[in-house]
Amino acid sequence: MAVEEEAEKYESDSDGLKRISSDDLVKDEKQEEFPTFPYDPYSIQTDFMKALYRFLDKGGVSMLESPTGTGKSLSIICSALQWLIDRKEKKTNNDDDKKVEDDESEEPDWIRNFTVNDDDKKNTIRNNRKSPFPLRKHAKEQRGGFDARKEGEVSIKKHESTGGGDDVNEQEFLLEEYESEEDSSSSKRKPPVGGGGFYSSSSEEEEEEEGGLKVFYCSRTHSQLSQFVKELKKTVFAQSIRVVCLGSRKNMCINEDVLKLGSVSRINERCLDLQKKKTSLVSKKKNLGTNVRGGRTKASSSCRCPMLSKQSLQRDFKAEILQQEAMDIEDLVQIGRDMRTCPYYGSRRVAPAADLVILPYQSLLSKSSRESLGLNLKNNVVIIDEAHNLADTLLSMHDAKVTMLQLEDIHSSIESYLGRFQNLLGAGNRRYIQTMLILIRALLKPLATTTDRNLNSVNSGLDTSKSKSCGGCSMAIYDFLFSLNIDNINLVKLLAYIKQSNIIHKVSGYGERVAMLQKDPAAHEETSKLTSFRAFSDILVALTHNNGDGRIIVSKMSSSTSGKQGGYIKYVMLTGSKLFSEVVDEAHAVILAGGTLQPIEETRERLFPWLPSNKLQFFSCSHIVPSESIMPIAVSHGPSGQSFDFSHGSRSSTKMIQELGLLMSNLVAMVPEGVIVFFSSFEYETQVHTAWTNSGILRRIMKKKRVFREPRRNTEVEAVLRDYKEAIESGSGAIMLAVVGGKVSEGINFSDGMCRCVVMVGLPYPSPSDIELLERIKHIEGLGDSESSKPCLTLVDDSYYSGDVREGFGVLRSCRRRGKEYYENLCMKAVNQSIGRAIRHAKDYSAILLVDARYANDPSKRTSHPSSKLPKWIKDHLIYSTKGYGDVHRLLHQFFKHKNVEKSS
Fold this sequence. Notes:
Blueprint: H1 3-11, E1 18-19, H2 22-27, H3 43-58, E2 60-65, H4 72-106, H5 109-127, H6 139-142, H7 165-170, H8 204-208, E3 215-219, H9 222-232, H10 237-240, E4 243-245, H11 249-252, H12 256-259, H13 264-287, H14 296-301, H15 311-323, H16 329-339, H17 343-350, E5 356-360, H18 361-365, H19 367-373, E6 381-384, H20 390-396, E7 400-403, H21 404-421, H22 427-444, E8 472-475, H23 477-483, H24 491-501, H25 503-517, H26 529-542, E9 550-555, H27 559-562, E10 568-573, H28 577-586, E11 589-594, H29 600-607, E12 617-620, E13 630-635, H30 654-670, E14 674-679, H31 682-695, H32 697-702, E15 706-709, H33 717-729, E16 734-739, E17 757-761, H34 771-781, E18 800-801, H35 805-814, H36 818-835, E19 846-851, H37 853-856, H38 872-875, H39 885-904
Parallel strand pairs: 1-12, 2-11, 2-12, 3-5, 3-6, 4-5, 6-11, 13-19, 14-16, 14-17, 15-16, 17-19
Antiparallel strand pairs: 7-10, 8-9, 8-18, 9-10
């Protein structure tokens, strides 16, 4: 269905979305002005702010679409925070009125007079602040002694020595007695030693300091969050409300010994490990007869991370943040360095008392992350920015994957642990450990190759007779469990054991200790034992999901082609409605904002199908840039007359790559300042760059502009962008070879001379050889059907899929509508996100070249056309067809000549 047709459907009153138009907003007198907006707002910005304010008043789920470069972030800030202040003031006034009425009815005059004077004093304090939010007491005034945990009552009873002094050192790895609730006759089992992190999300201190109504703002990347804080600092809200940014350990850790580990997983593990070692030390002292008082405060004070050794510094950090204006992650890290205390945990302390919490997607959309951080969404506001790919992002966060190497590592570690401690373990521990070993062996069976000597290669029930060196097989959860004959294992009880017994840290800690004593180099490999255990645990959680929520993919690869990872088992989540409902049910309002949110119906069906279309509030505005400031052209032919076809089968041809090189050679001679070229993948960009280098085309391009390439590593992007900007400002000009879906295509603004022309090479469809993508396409194809629980396509259902592109295209051809539509939407959302980097404000200008003959076809002659999914502000001015490259050259020459005249005048 074309976007125009969808728009007509949405505007209908009977069954479409509940849209708010500009005329409706003019009639709305509830909130006519936004005095906190730092500039004179454009009319579309005012309309956006009014729509958002109204949506927040009503609550529920709303979607607001504002083209990139229209000041969306600033509009969100000024509308949402104005609403927050108004709502808090209204509640305060109502409470004061109620209190006065109660006082007048029940208290004598002399008490009422005393109370009024006391209120005056409080108001004086409140007015010293620039907002209606009262100052909180310093953390030092509120803290009290923590109740001692009863971990001291739990001690290791069996202390049999078989190895002299070394045995005493190993006591910290010995599991405590374990009995499940069904096996135990006692009322409640005591919590395991060292089971939690540094802070409990339900601590008394945090509960006491809950700051009431909050706005949670989240976006995809840390750079987008930093940009939001930058916009926030332009307003009075930066000083008048309490703001905190939450980030990942990788971005906020200041312990250099931990940071140098590099990968996110290893940094997370080391951070938690440094905290858990403190409790192990306490237990060890108990076993040695040392009189050590148990308790949370004592355990925390013995944390081995130097940045968490003093809780008083953490409280000082919190007090400092609450007195400062809004700060981004870099600011928080700097304060943490100056105070020599952890900004990651320090910022988490601030969150309960904050009015605005800024955080990445993962921290808010994952229930386990919310619980870990202590985030309470109840009756609060959630704003999800950059929501164009929200459904896929939400689902990918709940995927789980474990590799063959990880399973083998776990199996070896548990066997080693059991061999050492078997005689010291109780019956409950031995039973669950044996169950884990049975389960791991079962999971290894479908991954075993014919050359594996250690494991039985019989794949119980799994048809891998067609197995090749790549590809995989897709199965429903129940079918997978039955095929491995593990359907009789109670995974819920096993997961409870893994969590409560702390076996992951006991076994991995013992394994690393043994490896260190034996000076085994494997102990320092990238993939640590904790990573392996967590991957295994995640897969077990996935296997407890409903049968129709996702699919299990088994990928079996031979050692000659698999590299380090080998085969793997992966769970792919397919439905996000249950996950998203957990957020919607809690929050007062959930706002989805983005530059391009179309198609709306697909998002509704995937995230909140229970919500009728006419109950979903939607607002969309046009662009602030005048039509004469953009020049969008569909380029169908190159300078030599060769037709551009960057489809999968043609894009790698020498002719196509050389023709693209000729086009770029002409463009760099005509376009001033910066040019950005987007390719479909890093692999294709590398292929093109190599071909241009060998043919001499790259040398011709470099005579006019310096050439930069987007690096694969995100950590290197900032330096490349800095050099790119310097080249443009120096007058030499520059061209950036970037990748769709990379760092450059999302979250980075290329205003003014940074991008005078953006070139989209082809249509960046995702590879149809991806079995995970095909599973999602099959699931979406079945949405809305009466038998939606059954996939309507059968090519890869419970059968081996080799990863061949032709098989993937076969699946796509079998789709009737929804699956094919989803595949096209993935492509065009990526296009829209990339080309939207060019125009960032009202006086900006840029040419937009869509290089492929498929863009140039007449959209009126096709039911589904790529250009129909372009943003309206581009689509309405797109030049679909030209007589040849000569016309393109002429149009671009006139466009930039006219802009140069305007600039000089």
